[in-house]
Amino acid sequence: MAKILVITSGKGGVGKTTTSAALGTGLALRGHKTVIVDFDIGLRNLDLVMGCERRVVYDFVNVINGDATLHQALIKDKRLENLYVLAASQTRDKEALTQDGVGRVLDELSQNFEYVICDSPAGIERGAHLAMYYADEAIVVTNPEVSSVRDSDRMLGLLSSKSRRAERGEEPIKEHLLLTRYDPTRVDKGEMLGVDDVEEILAIRLLGVIPESQSVLKASNQGVPVILDEHSDAGQAYSDAVDRLMGKEVPHRFIDAQKKGFLQRLFGGR
Amino acid sequence: MSQDQDAVFQLKGSMLAITLLELARYDLARLERQLADKVAQAPKFFDNTPLILALDKLHDASIPVDLQKLIAICRQHGLQTLAVRTDRQDDMTLASELDVPVIATSSASGRALEPSDEASQGEVARPSKVIHRPVRGGQQVYAQGCDLIVIGPVSPGAELLSDGNIHVYGPLRGRALAGIKGDGKARIFCKELNAELVSIAGRYKVAEDLRRSPFWGQGVHISLTGDLLNIHRL
What we know:
The complex is a heterodimer.
Chain A: E1 3-8, H1 16-29, E2 34-38, H2 46-50, H3 60-65, H4 70-73, E3 75-76, E4 83-86, H5 99-112, E5 115-119, H6 126-133, E6 137-142, H7 146-161, H8 164-168, E7 174-182, H9 184-188, H10 195-202, E8 205-211, H11 214-222, H12 233-245, H13 262-267
Parallel strand pairs in A: 1-5, 1-6, 2-4, 2-5, 6-7, 7-8
Antiparallel strand pairs in A: 3-4
Helix pairs in contact in A: 1-12
Chain B: E1 19-22, H1 28-41, E2 49-54, H2 67-76, E3 79-86, H3 89-97, E4 102-104, H4 107-111, H5 115-123, E5 129-131, E6 140-143, E7 148-151, E8 159-162, E9 166-172, E10 175-178, E11 188-193, E12 197-200, E13 203-206, H6 207-210, E14 220-225, E15 228-233
Parallel strand pairs in B: 1-2, 2-3, 3-4, 5-7, 6-8, 7-9, 8-10, 9-11, 10-12
Antiparallel strand pairs in B: 11-14, 12-13, 14-15
Family (chain A): Belongs to the ParA family. MinD subfamily.
GO biological process, one term (chain A): negative regulation of cell division
GO molecular function (chain A): ATP binding; ATP hydrolysis activity
């Protein structure tokens, strides 16, 4: 049986899809058969970030409605052998998702994959609820600013009360915090919440800190998950996060501001 | 004015003295004999006396009771059964077949007459509601009729409600309302006061006022004197 991971946040634009693509790719890179499912029906983006938008024929809603089989709808990644994407429908809305339908599809995916990554839409409504309902573990993506932290907190509340595990009284969903778009320099200036502040407010395990980076936008536009850009700090930070997800102890990087050298200061640095 | 302004009846609550027959053993022959003895002692008392038949104190609760026969014996001796008090499903079914109302067994109603029992009841404290995980924004926890204890942080946007005291072993960043049924003696305890609002018996302070307290961000307990909320350092 696969492990079902949900990438969620409550707030939009914090990096859920980027994270889903990066973590999914990272798991596949380490040899685990992984599928990433886009739950953002009507605003499908994952296929763009994964660079498979031109190969979408059938989508998640088609499978739920029985118009297509999973086999027909799964898009195989061009770069990695054991990575697949299940795209969202662009023409429907979130009402097209049913609890039974989602359960059936995830069940079938669980038979054939080691990891099922659910890329949740923003908000706390149907799409987001169904994305997290069947999850075993949750990665809560948060930006270091107050509104994002508050929304993550709300999401954590829902994870602990509105999931299948909670309803069945099973062991609760394992929660991880992933802090994205982190800028240590601005934290030092007091313009941004620090890692410690966010950790203290949310009181969950820190999976990783992804620094604000030009490479993320570039990677999204090119349709290449940023984790494949081994030279970028964001790519390395995601790679560390995947290792921690697998249970490895890896020290946190990119938390402290780097002192700029004389030459870097002279020429404007990065 | 319409005629319906003139009420033809009035609903009133009232306490009536009604005899309760608590059956300890289901032995109809002995019951009949012993009832007859009682009637012989005070025949006036047993003249059309309203009665509640209590079956919840039966020695052996598994024996089926012939309710119809039981009621008949009572009637023979001048006791008119108004209702049956029981917690057994079989009795309830029988009673409804016989069109006799059923009074649910409540531990309080029967014991209230025995002072010794009442005293011991007062000594038994009601268990507090204990929450072992963080209370997140958007969540609401209500401890009805008891104290509320939270072990962990209470996030902004979370709401704690309690008829009694509230204890938070962690930072209190949400709302805490103690004594919401009007208990002015209720208190709020927390390890770190960062609350959006605290209230005791309806008297409240919002974060704007709380921030002015020298104990903001510290361990405090909050109590009510008259109309005033007092914040003391723990």
